[in-house]
Amino acid sequence: MTPPRSNSRAISRSSTEGACPSKPTIASRPIRRRNSRSDILRHYNPRVRIDCSAPTRIDLAGGTIDIWPLYLFHQPAVTLNAAISLRAHCAIEARDDGRVVLVSEDTGERVDVESPAALGVTTLPLVARLVRFFDARGLTLTTRSDSPVGAGIAGSSAMNIALISALASFTGRSLSPDEVLEIAKNVEAQVIDVPTGVQDYRPALYGGISAVELDVTGIRRVPIAVPAAALASRIVLAYTRASRNSGINNWDMMKRHIDGESRVVEAFDNIASIARRMRAALEAERWEEVGRELAAEWDNRKRLAPGVTTPAIDTLLDRARGAGAVAGKVCGAGGGGCLFCLVPPEQHADVSQALADAGARVLPFQIEDQGVHLRTSR
């Protein structure tokens, strides 16, 4: 796996993370308040346009354990994921009137205010909070996603990384990867009002197929050396046409663990072991073993909380298995969104058709080697 390319002067990225990420110094460069039109014109070129995108992901195994402090209870903990070509996009166009205009092409929502301070946090809350954090003004910021809303493939986390990258570039802030990850985690927690995991930001930032190692010393993202085409040809991704709220499901799972529910603690322990075994199987391209571990992951995940699966999800997975799928599970916390199935390459078309016939929307994708990508034009 080749390391991701550096795409922006605003973010200095590396292909792996340090064992103990440095504590970010977010205010290393003072933010100057820009209130007058002349200030805006001096700081921003009205012709500047920034386009930025970041990939979503399929979580292969070990999800939810990436929420602090759950991973500390199941050592050694690892989460496996793969960045995919369904990306989250944002575009910034500078304007000379100082106003802040936010537009979502996905929801049709629009906000137009005189300054970042005037932004509320109920409409387009993630975008609004990040614009306020960067004190960005004199811009029209437009977002859109390749993935359906509530798909469970970390679309909000990918948008988070894309927005931070674009706003850092627009405001002249230089951020390290650790700073980007810290801002993303903390702002998303403010938006969803519950603790967030840490795995979803890594594929958005770096791309590729990854193991996210979590222990008492910190968090490390390690590339998994498996050919991207070999994995992509064995996965069918489908949207169940029912969105979900991952924050709610994950919070329920976390509370049950912290409260000491033995069934839940045991299931998490099993999921941690499964992720370690699947990592070894992926690295050796032992696909039958990968399939067995995926099936075991799903069996244990359904024990974490009510609502992880639904009758509709069960029906879709049954149809997929009937068409030749080896195993499958929902993406993210469950309850809706997307599911994916591991299939022999020769059965890919049959499983895709079976899921479509059962009412799902099959989402074509490729494994994405490139993480966040930023382009500036005039």
Care to describe what's here?
The protein is of the alpha+beta class and 378 residues long. It has two domains: 37-224 and 368-377, Ribosomal Protein S5, domain 2, CATH 3.30.230.10; 228-362, Alpha-Beta Plaits (2-Layer Sandwich). It has eleven helices and twelve strands. The strands form two sheets. Strands 1, 2, 3, 4, 5, 6, 7 and 12 form an eight-stranded mixed sheet that branches. It is globular. The two termini are 34 Å apart.
Give the CA-CA distance, first to last residue.
34 Å
Percent strand equals: 15-25%
Query: How many β strands by DSSP?
Result: 12
Order of helices and strands: HEEEEHEHHHEEHEHHHHEEHEE
Low-confidence stretches: 1-10, 12-16, 18-35
Structural class: alpha+beta
Query: How large, in whole angstroms, is the Cα Rg?
Result: 21 Å
CATH class of the largest domain: Alpha Beta
* Helix share bin: 25-40%
Basic shape: globular
Main beta-sheet annotation: 8 strands, mixed
How many domains? The number is 2
Mean pLDDT rating: 90
CATH-defined architecture of the largest domain: 2-Layer Sandwich
Number of DSSP helical runs:
11
